[in-house]
Predict the structure.
Amino acid sequence: MLAEPRSGLLVAWGNALLAGHVPPDDAVSEIVGTDEPHRVTGVPGESVPVGLSLALGRLRALGVTGLRLALPVAGDPLALPGPPAFNDLALDAGEAAITVGAPDVAYGLVPEVTRHGTDGDAAVRVAWRMLEVSDRPAQGPFLAEAERELAEAMRDAIEDLTRLDVAGSGPAAQRALAGLYRKDSDTRVAPGHPGRAGRVLDQARRIHAVLSVACAEDGAAVSAAEISARLGALAPLERACRRAMVAAYGAALEPDRA
């Protein structure tokens, strides 16, 4: 799971665009960031890859009213609609965006990210694959529910984090743990999203930082058994973190936003 999945940015700013909150150029700029211009293959009516702006415009013309996020892992295909070929691509990428609202067909978009160039001058190329998917409406998670789950999982994990001496993994782990208790937030959400979405994303990213270093060696001797114990103990927190990100990035689609 990425701290800021590209599919999450596509969902958040794509929803802002489809709702009329931002113009196409602004939405595409926010999605692409510092990447090279994104290309999309499989767009209906197009035989060659096209730019992201054209792809989003084509989806709107097909009746798509929104996008939702999937952050699947093996054993937990969170929010994946099928068919298996699409699910396999999404599982390999760890993320996908799914269209909603079109009356006749639904589509899924999966990013393929490649990096090229030197370490000091690296560039990122993103190619999205668009495929037809099963048209099954997502049943959450919704933002308020996901926020409660994340808080509960965090409370339950504190004891395990202490018992497993995650802080002993090194300075990166200590910084990540200290960040859990920060109160400030610099997370920016797309127009049309409730303020709570930014708070939930901020906390999810801080927890993600802990998860990233908890099972990795960072200047300390971490045995295979210790890594296995940490993975098992922190699995509920990792799932809650993914569910919170799915809910926050897609919060603009909730019928009664808080």
In short: The chain is about 45% helix and 15% strand. The longest strand covers residues 106-116. The two ends are 26 Å apart (CA to CA). Residues 217-221 have pLDDT under 50 and may be disordered.
